[in-house]
Structures are given as C-alpha cells and as structure tokens.
Amino acid sequence: MIKCIAIDMDGTLLTSAQEITEANRDAIKKAQEKGVEVIISTGRAYEEAGDLLKDAGIITPMICANGAEIRTNKHEIVGTNPLEKSLAKEMAEILHQNQVYYEVYTDKGTYTLDKKMARSLIMDIFTVSGHIGNLEDIQKAAEERLEVIHEVESYLPLFEEDAYIIYKLLVFHTEPTKLAEVRKKLSGVKGLAISASGQENLELTAVNAQKGVALEKFVQSKGISLKDTMAIGDNFNDLSMFLKAGRAVAMGNAVDEIKKQCHFVTGTNEESGVAQAINLALSEES
Predict the structure, then answer these.
(1) Which tens digit of pLDDT belongs to each residue from 152-184?
(2) Which CATH class is domain 85-206?
(3) Which fold, 4-81+210-285?
(4) Residues with a known catalytic role
C-alpha cells in the first residue's frame, strides 16, 4: 500500500515549458485526499521551486537541493545537510583549475560569478537538449531562472563567512567529455556525493545530502516504511530515491540506464506521467 509519494520536478512534474499540468495537480490532490503523504524532491533551490508550486496550488513538504534542505508543507526549514566549508573550497579549486562554470547554492540563495555566462550556457543547454521548442520560450526559461540567482565578484565570502551555509555546487558544461574529466577528478574527494539532473551538469553535495537519504528521514518521521513509498523521477539525482523506495517509477523521458533501475516506467513529462503513476497506484489500493 502506497503511503508516501516522492516526486522530482524537472523532467518529471514539470513539462519542458516549466509548467505543471492540470492532470498532475489533480492526481497529487487526489492522493493527498486519500491520506497519502506527498513530498516534492528536487535538485532546485527553494527559491527556484517554492513559488512555482504555490502558484500551482500544490502544498507539500519539500526536499530541496537534492536533500541538502528539507522543508515542511508550510515551507519552513526543518533539516539541512550542508557541505563543509573546507570541502566546498576543495571542490571549487578543482573546478577553477578545470575552467568550468559552476554556481553555489546556499541558505541565502544561489550565486554566480557571471550572469552573462549563465544565460549563454542555459540557453545553449535548452537549445541542444530540445526540451524547449522555440527561441522565445528558451529565453523566457533562462530569464526566469536568472531572476533568483545573485551575481557576486568572488565566492570566497560564501566559503569563509559563517553567515552562509553551502548546500550544493552545480556545474554546467556543454561538452560531455569535459564533465566526465571533471567528475573523475572530483571522485577522489571524500565526503562528496556526485550526481546529475541532465547530461550537461554535475550536482555536488555532501554525501548525506541525497534525495534518498532525505526521503528515508522524512518517511521515518511520519512512521511510514520505505516499502510503502513510491518515488517518481527521470535522472541520476533521483537514483538514490529509486534504490530505497518500494516502488520506483521512471518517467518515459528518462534515459535507459535510469529506467533499468526502476520497477515501472510511466508516461513522459509532456504526457502527465506523474499523474499516470499516481492514478495507477491509487487504483490498485481501491
């Protein structure tokens, strides 16, 4: 019996136009009405995700930044799994040496050294991936993301001042070989979890800041077993959830390697695959 449902956002709950379909909204509310705990589990910072969910009328607890932050259904922070400052600086040095662009996620928001570079990279990634169809929508999506990112001259204050808690470093590059090279160099760093939410990025968090770890803590706090939990996602940063959940569901748009790790494959994010998975699970209980 499914008692908890964890849902990823990008490529899963969201369409390529960054929208939540009516079918997905209705299915989530239907599950909640039946007493199922629903939690949104995203690699996004809260600032990128919270208002979007509120605007859609979806009220749930949240796992943000891949598990670095956990929030209640009122979006109050109840748990964090930050990166140690020394670890963050070590990773930053490797990234600087390899000349790759990256952003720093903190409890005070997300930071970049170069918004122009961020805009160019995001537009290139959206264009190459084909997730967004036309230039106008690509520009809109890029600008919406940049609205919640702060530009700074240096990351050093973030790494050195106690006022900031580091959640995640997000690396972008359009060349897969470059990302693979950087990933190999980072793999020797102790206490680091490396995942990805797309072919063009790497997500770097503390080893305990993973969706699966955060989900396990959440269900335990609710007295729910992981075997009664369903996780829905599309990419490698969802893998830790899939390995723990009793029912792992891959989106139809997920890569084959992810689909192989799951019990079921649902429709794509454009086909309201989340709603399909939820409605199927609920129908099995009736």
Answers:
(1) 999 999 999 999 999 999 999 888 899 999 999
(2) alpha beta
(3) Rossmann fold (3.40.50)
(4) 8
